[in-house]
């Protein structure tokens, strides 16, 4: 086999980038710039964001539910009543939470599967942000329905488009970079001498973490992934031959970039594998057979070796699907919520064990919520939804957002009422840009850089942040 062919085959077989399609998003992943930065640029503290992307459109109005005698009947009616054809959760089964900024006579409960999330909220370690969605500028129901040409996000109610817009940090038709990646581009100089990229994905290639200079390093919940086919009796010889090829000089840019990318992947694998080998044993028990918990447990291990990796800032990504509940929602939703809740509870406990709970913020995103009314066995695509943020830095036990047309932070759930369309598609009162910028700002993104990463942010005034992070 020719040297170039062998090199190309080796690159294509590499799973260190999670998939072959991820290769081209990682071509510029280099650490040389980090080494050139002064150590004085790095802060003395560590901070990390952990993004849990609930793919499919989470029906979050069954996650956080008004339980008072005035609003619960409205919720139940709009949800087409209780099962088997309605989507309303029985009021007596809700887990009560103490909302510090609830209005007079208002009370709330969580879905009965969300025991750990309720505990985090009631202990002041978590907050909810109601009615968040993609927006170009503040939008009311009359604007959406009756103002010709009023700017609204393109391709509303489309999974791929809305997932992309949450990831991009702007309501645009398409984009090559995400706000997590662009934030890493601005902040990776705060990791001088880092031996691994700032962004780490537990879900392969993703738009959220794709930057211009910083690309995500993808690994699995079981640890870093190395090349396929380099084990067994000939594994050592094959690896040595590959290493020799990687040291060669190649005349064309594509081959040089291939070689550099494979070398980086091998180096990152070795670095992460060695670092994790020295990780302290965690006593926190993560729930078994839980894919979200497995990913978060690996993130906790990575955080525990942050000093070895010389990381002061990190961004993690965990995707979890199954939320496109057009069918069998009442059967499937309890398991989905229980999986997320148990994983989030264990992860927060692990950050406490590592004494980094004030330095790690975990947050959910989902492309949209779902219609309040039932389609007979589930719900359909909608717009604004509810997001959950947890961590020691969160000013917890409260709801954060902007008043809806009906007057409260939590919207009126009346079908075709002041805050939603005919099937209960909520008009967002908080832009996904605001929510995301609040998180990025806490991580260290400056006000001026925030306006660049989130180009529509100025439409929400001089202080667009939501205040849930101290």
Salient structural properties:
alpha/beta; 14 helices; eight-stranded mixed beta sheet; 33% helix; disordered N terminus; signal; 470 residues; single chain
In short:
Pfam families: DUF1501. The chain has 470 residues and is of the alpha/beta class. It contains 14 helices and eleven strands.
Give the secondary structure arrangement, pairings included.
Layout: H1 3-13, H2 32-36, E1 47-54, E2 64-66, H3 72-78, E3 95-97, E4 108-110, H4 115-122, E5 126-133, H5 141-146, H6 159-168, H7 179-187, E6 199-201, E7 217-218, H8 235-246, H9 253-277, H10 291-304, H11 306-309, E8 313-320, H12 329-353, E9 360-365, E10 385-390, E11 430-431, H13 432-443, H14 447-453
Parallel strand pairs: 1-8, 1-9, 5-11, 6-7, 6-8
Antiparallel strand pairs: 2-4, 3-4, 5-10, 9-10
Radius of gyration: 23 Å
Helix content range of the residues, please?
25-40%
What is the β-strand count? 11
Structural class: alpha/beta
| Oligomeric category | single chain
Q: Uncertain segments of ≥5 residues (pLDDT<50)?
A: 1-43
Give the overall form. Answer: globular
Strand order of the biggest β-sheet: 7-6-8-1-9-10-5-11
Distance between the termini: 59 Å
Task: Give the biggest beta sheet.
Answer: 8 strands, mixed
Q: Give the count of helical stretches.
A: 14
How would you spell out the order of helices and strands?
Answer: HHEEHEEHEHHHEEHHHHEHEEEHH
- The overall average pLDDT, rounded, is 89
Provide the β-strand percentage band. Answer: 5-15%
Tally of distinct domains: 1
Pfam families: DUF1501
InterPro entries: DUF1501
Keywords: Signal
Protein name: DUF1501 domain-containing protein
């Amino acid at each position: 086999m020719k040297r170039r062919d062998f090199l190309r085959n080796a690159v294509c077989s590499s799973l260190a980038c999670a998939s072959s399609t991820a290769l081209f998003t990682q071509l510029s992943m280099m650490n040389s710039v980090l080494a050139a930065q002064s150590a004085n640029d790095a802060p003395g503290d560590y901070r990390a964001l952990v993004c849990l992307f609930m793919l499919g459109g989470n029906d979050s109005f069954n996650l956080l539910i008004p339980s008072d005698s005035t609003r619960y009947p409205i919720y139940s009616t709009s949800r087409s009543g209780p099962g088997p054809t309605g989507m309303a959760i029985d009021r007596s089964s809700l887990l009560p939470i103490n909302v510090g900024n609830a209005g007079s006579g208002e009370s709330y409960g969580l879905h009965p599967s969300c025991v750990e999330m309720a505990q985090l909220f009631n202990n002041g370690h978590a907050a909810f942000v109601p009615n968040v969605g993609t927006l170009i500028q503040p939008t009311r129901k009359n604007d959406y329905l009756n103002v010709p040409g009023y700017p609204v996000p393109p391709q509303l109610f489309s999974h791929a488009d809305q997932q992309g817009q949450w990831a991009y940090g702007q309501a645009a038709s398409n984009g090559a970079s995400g706000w997590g990646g662009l934030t890493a581009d601005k902040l990776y100089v705060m990791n001088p001498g880092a031996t691994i990229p700032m962004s780490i994905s537990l879900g392969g290639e993703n738009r959220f973490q794709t930057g211009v200079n910083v690309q995500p390093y993808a690994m699995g919940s079981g640890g870093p992934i190395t090349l396929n086919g380099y084990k067994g009796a000939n594994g050592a010889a094959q690896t040595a031959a590959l290493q020799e090829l990687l040291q060669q000089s190649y005349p064309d840019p594509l081959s040089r970039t291939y070689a550099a990318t494979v070398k980086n992947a091998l180096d990152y694998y070795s670095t992460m594998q060695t670092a994790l080998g020295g990780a302290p044993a965690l006593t926190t028990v993560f729930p078994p057979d839980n894919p979200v918990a497995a990913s978060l447990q690996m993130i906790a291990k990575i955080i525990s070796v942050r000093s070895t990796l010389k990381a002061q800032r990190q961004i993690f990504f965990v995707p979890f699907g199954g939320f496109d509940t057009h069918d069998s929602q009442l059967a499937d939703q309890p398991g989905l919520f229980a999986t997320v809740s148990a994983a989030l509870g264990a992860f927060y406990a692990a950050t406490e064990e590592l004494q980094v709970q004030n330095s790690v913020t975990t947050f959910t995103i989902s492309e949209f919520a779902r219609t309040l009314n039932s389609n007979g066995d589930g719900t359909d695509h909608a717009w604004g939804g509810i997001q959950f943020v947890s961590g020691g830095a969160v000013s917890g036990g409260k709801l954060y957002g902007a008043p809806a047309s009906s007057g409260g932070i939590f919207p009126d759930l009346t079908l075709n009422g002041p805050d939603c369309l005919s099937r209960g598609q909520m008009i967002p009162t908080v832009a996904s840009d605001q929510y995301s910028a609040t998180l990025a700002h806490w991580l260290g993104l400056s006000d001026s850089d925030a306006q660049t990463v989130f180009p529509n942010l100025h439409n929400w005034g001089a202080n667009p942040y939501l205040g849930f992070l101290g």
